[in-house]
Specification:
Layout (H helix, E strand, L loop, with lengths): L4 H17 L18 H16 L12 H7 L5 H21 L7 E7 L5 E3 L10 E13 L2 E13 L2 E6 L6
Antiparallel strand pairs: 1-3, 2-3, 3-4, 4-5
Helix pairs in contact: 2-4, 3-4
Length: about 170
């Protein structure tokens, strides 16, 4: 049976749309490039996290959390999608917990963000990962309440595709 011209056009259009909507391949499939320690992107996403804490709206900080799309193929665990959902729920809980530590956030404003410990390479096979990454602990989210400086400790940040992402905000509870 020969496909009709209409089917061939539909198939070609569908294939073209799929190619256009597919995510661009990573320029660093082994994730070996260490992201810059300071960047506009990092500061902007850290400011989103601060706003999420100040407004008690966890979703505002989601762009700073490690995304699901690379997490699922990266993690070498039985159900990586479920594990990602658990980590994201913990991140949201931590944001609400941090919000509750201040009675009033109305005078608080974001100042800056700095990574913590010197980033170190975590090789594939370590920490149940199929792909390596750089990791840093105890980053600082600096903010002010009026003229008084303050900071929030951000537990664990890892690299992916040239950017830094939070995986654990507050210390891990077992």
């Amino acid at each position: 049976m020969v496909p009709s011209p209409m089917f061939i056009q539909w198939f070609a259009l569908t294939a073209l749309v799929a190619l256009c909507l597919a995510p661009a391949p990573s320029e660093d499939p082994d994730n070996r490039a260490k992201p810059p320690l300071v960047s506009e992107d990092l500061s902007e996403r850290a400011a989103h996290l601060f706003r999420a804490i100040a407004e008690n709206d966890p979703a505002l900080g989601d762009d700073f959390f490690f995304p699901r799309e690379p997490f699922v193929p990266l993690k070498d665990v039985a159900d990586p999608a479920r594990y990602h959902a658990q980590l994201l729920a913990t991140y949201h809980r931590d944001i609400r917990e941090l919000h509750a530590k201040r009675k009033d956030w109305s005078a608080a404003s974001f100042d800056s963000f700095e990574l913590g410990t010197p980033p170190t390479w975590v090789a594939p096979g370590k920490e149940y990962n199929k792909i390596g990454y750089f990791r840093t602990f105890h980053a600082k989210l600096h903010y002010r309440v009026g003229e008084r400086p303050s900071e929030i400790d951000v537990g664990t940040i890892i690299s992916w595709d040239g950017r830094w992402y939070v995986t654990h905000l507050l210390p891990i509870r077992h």
